[in-house]
Amino acid sequence: MTDPTVPQIPSLEVQGLVKDFPSGGLFSRTSVRALGGVNLSIGRGEIVALVGESGSGKSTLARCVARLEKPTSGKILLDGVDVLRRDRFSASREYRSQVQMVFQDPFGSLNPAHRIEHFLTRSLEIHGKAHKGAALREQLAALLQTVGLSEDMLSSYPHELSGGQRQRVAIARALAVEPQVILADEPTSMLDVSVRIGILNLLARLRDEQGISMLYITHDLASARYLADRTAVMFAGELVEEGESLELLAEPAHPYTQLLVSAVPDPARSGSYDPEERARLRAAVMKSSSCAFDTDPNQRCSSSEPVRHQVGETGTHWVRCHLYRPQNASTAHTVAPSTALTETQAS
Amino acid sequence: MTVSQTSFGSHDSVLEVRDLVVQYVSDTRAITAVDRVSFDIGVGEIFGLAGESGCGKSTIANSIMRLLRHPALIAGGSITFGGRDVLAMDTDELRRFRWQDVAMVFQSAMNSLNPVMTIGDQMVDIFTTHAGYSRKESLRRSAQLLELVRIDPARLRSYPHQLSGGMRQRAVIAMAVALKPSLLILDEPTTALDVVVQQEIMAQIKDLQRELGFSVLFITHDMSLMVELSHRMAVMNSGRIVETAAAKTIHASPRHPYTQALMNAFPPLTGPRRPLRGLGDDVTFGDIPDLEEVTPGHFVAPAAPSLGASL
Known about the structure:
The structure holds 2 protein chains of 2 kinds. Chain A contains 12 helices and 12 strands. By secondary structure, chain A is an alpha/beta fold. Chain A has helices spanning 58-65, 83-86, 93-98, 116-126, 134-146, 163-176, 193-210, 221-227, 245-250, 255-263, 275-287, 337-346, and strands at 12-22, 31-42, 47-51, 73-78, 81-82, 99-102, 181-185, 213-218, 230-235, 238-244, 308-310, 318-320. In chain A, helix 4 (116-126) packs parallel to helix 6 and helix 10 (255-263) packs across helix 12. Chain A folds into 2 domains: 42-70 and 92-233, P-loop containing nucleotide triphosphate hydrolases (Rossmann fold, 3-Layer(aba) Sandwich); 252-346, no CATH class. By secondary structure, chain B is of the alpha/beta class. Chain B has one domain: Rossmann fold, CATH 3.40.50. Helix content of chain B is 35%, strand content 25%. In chain B, strands 6-7-8-3-9-10-12-11 form an 8-stranded mixed beta sheet, with helices on both faces. In chain B, helix 7 links the parallel strand 7 (183-187) and strand 8 (215-220). The longest helix of chain B is centred in the middle third of the chain and has 18 residues, at 195-212. The A-B interface holds A 53-54, 162, 164-165, 192-198, 200-201, 219-223, 225-226, 246, 249-250, 259-268, 270, 275, 278-279, 282 and B 52-53, 150, 165, 194-200, 202-203, 221-225, 227-228, 247-248, 251, 261-262, 265-270, 273, 275-281, 283.
């Protein structure tokens, strides 16, 4: 990933990012907190997956970073520079060319009235990166080639392409401006299974060959594990656990992560959990506005913020949960990650 | 699972599809979407139909419900439901057949609810239209149905937008089983939903199935999900079935290269991280031959060895 001897400034970092959406009527001043102070960093040439269910705030985070939404407070640092202070009201063109977004729906993100050529050329022109004359054609062909499409498609309309091909065009459009960071918001969830892997492989190749950093948003844990170097779990607008992907998904420490992991259909593990208990737990999760897992009356998440605990020895895996007990602790209350869920259910 | 195993062995089938051919016709040419497809669904059995978009699996579901419209045309074969010829039914018979005998939940069924009617009114409609109950009786039964899928009956007064996606999908499933059909067709019932919600809905379908004893035709491209839910399954490519067997058999020993590729299209949640290739945009097999029985109950279309290598 990165050379540990060189002090690294993350490619992209968010610090204490808060986003409140106003709700209620004209005269009421209530608001819904979508992001409750998120800290996340993405290294150069690193893919970080952000997982969680609908409504957990993953897309809001991406939209704030893309500056499609204005964060209520917090910092967004690109190469260590606070971009919210630099361009206070809207993102500069420079920022937009450095941070590009790929959306979930390739059927909605390409205007049906234009040919593929148009989308790519327009991106290049807006950012002043378009070549002139025949060189432009070469530039476009090279872009399509990077994403695994043929040059003939330049004159096609979106409706002539399959979902997978359209998503590749959307990625080519993002690549046109040579971004440093790509924010991919569920880029495969609307695609057929058979082409999903192809898109994931393409994103991995862009990381490996061009050193592009990525925030990969998904609710598909298996694809996060496949693609991302690190995975962060979002629950009710806060990151509750983060770690190296394989390690995190092998030993999820937060009960919410465990809930997510247990929900992935896997015939090999069939019957390894009790659906009744899980349904009940999930109902509790849905009802609660903060943390549904806190059962210890002295240490509720609502009254005191849980601190980060390091999990394991690698130093990359942490969890924020009062229930977490490190495995090597001498107290009788030791909770192995796999049993934490059962303990919550029992109470 | 034990319930299914017994009914699985009984050989009583609720639905028999034989050599079904469906074509989409234009003035100049005909495209065969479903090509000589045969399968049975036993009483109380969950039968899965897997394959990519465009392989013809939804067309089969629509043929069973007789929902195909021009330019789709059933060009051959037969569909028999409980001894009755579905393809010969007239309008009146069809009206009774749909919903009472066979109900279907569509892919984005949660968006098929009428946004300006309450959930209750839409449910009551089913009973008054198809079963001739009074409004009061219909309301009582609607409340029971919602309880069956663990939705508070007070929600009868809610409008669809007041329910979450998962709740709406469960409400639609409750409506589908309202008249106790013998066959429930689920066409990608959870594709638009989150994993946890999906898990919950699948568990509920299993519970309902155990309780009410209906058969299920389950259509999805998610092989893991299908293997978890189905008793028996078939894999389709280019309008033909390439392999059919007990779901566990297919999971343990997929024989056809396409089945193997489809199983490999999903990254696993355990084991080492290794590169997967997926299927590409247009993997199709030319002429898929008829199925051959390789082990009892496990049928596979012989595939040219070179095809396996090319995947």
